[in-house]
Structure formats: structure tokens, C-alpha cells
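Justification of computing resources. Each target in the renewal requires a structure prediction run like the one illustrated here; the chain below, 221 residues long, is used simply to show the kind of job we budget for.
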Amino acid sequence: MADKCPVDHGSHSSDQSCPVDHKSRTTWASVLPGTSPAHQVSASSLSTEREVSSIPRTDNGNWVYPSEAQFFAAMARKNHNPHAPDMKTIIPIHNAVNERAWSELMKWESGRGGEKCGGVKLVTFKGRPNDLTPKARLMTLLGYSAPFDRHDWVVERCGTRIRYVIDFYTGRGAGHSSNNVSFYLDVRPALDNWEGVKMRAENIWQDWFGSVRSSNTPPQS
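Resulting C-alpha cells:
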């Protein structure tokens, strides 16, 4: 049965904690545009409907995103001062970004045989907004902006589990005071087992030598 969101951004998951942990809730709210004060919405009028994601679970069905009311209540319980009108903006963007994260992850999984055993499935998820990945730390030292959030997703492919790291960056012009919403997602396998190392090495080989082969191929007449 599908009863949880694909990302809780925390160290554990439950129906009550779905979908974002208490640290990342305010992080996401700070980078997403707010609703105009002219559109007054009370907490009691927030929707309780939940959207089913395209992300498969290991126990059949798909993960389910939180409702506006759940997102608001979870923030309010931890005194994060949520604004009810913002939920109508945050929820659809949050869901769309997670769908995009899964799409990027599946590009890595393409051609690796997951379809032979029912497809790749999301096993666990964890938010680590305060833990910079080595790559993100290096990029900040080089002068680039740090990601505003980080997720670790563990997927299962025919009995093999692979941890993926996802760094979330805001695009130019995005932010709470802007109506422009733009995100860049850096999705890649973690280098904590042989499978992840092999996948990353194959990707580098393809990027370097695949492009060389393409550039050396004479144009067709």
C-alpha cells in the first residue's frame, strides 16, 4: 500500500513525519516563492488530498506525497511558523522537484537490468541539509553557491542496493522574494560501494571518450 512520501528529509520516515524533516521544511519554504497576501488561506481550509508519485516502493504501490494540511501541520508542530497560503505554492513545486530527482536517478539506472525484476524501487530516503557532500564542499571552495538541501536515496535493483546522493541548488532569480522558480539537481551514485564506483567511472569514460569518438566520426554525406 502506498502511504508515504518519497522524501522525508529526515533520519526516519512515518506517516506523521512525511514528507520533510523539521530542518528541511524551513529550508524549502525559504527558497520557494510565497503567496501574495491578497490570497488569504486559513489552515483549516488546506487540502487533505495527496498525490501519488511515480516512484515505486519495494512493497508494491508507489510513494505518496503529503497534503497541504500535513505539510503545514508538521511545520507547526515544531514551531516553524508556517504560512497557510504558502502551502498551495510549496506542495506542487516540492512534488515536481522530487519527480525530477527520480527521473534523473533513472537515467543512471537505464540499461542496468532493473526491468528484469520488476523495475528499480526506492527503499529508504534521508534528508541531510546540513551535511555537504565532498563534491559540494569542493565547489563552494571554488566559489560556487552551496546546495540548499541534500537527500540520500537508497534504491534496489534486482537485490542490489545503491545509495544515490542528490544536491539541490536554486537557479538564478529563484528565491522566496521572486516569482521565478528554478532548480538544479546534481544526482549521482554514492562512492560507498563497488557498484557506485563502477557507475561513476563508466559515466566519466562515456563523457570523455564517447564525446571524442563522436567528434572524430566523419559527417555523413
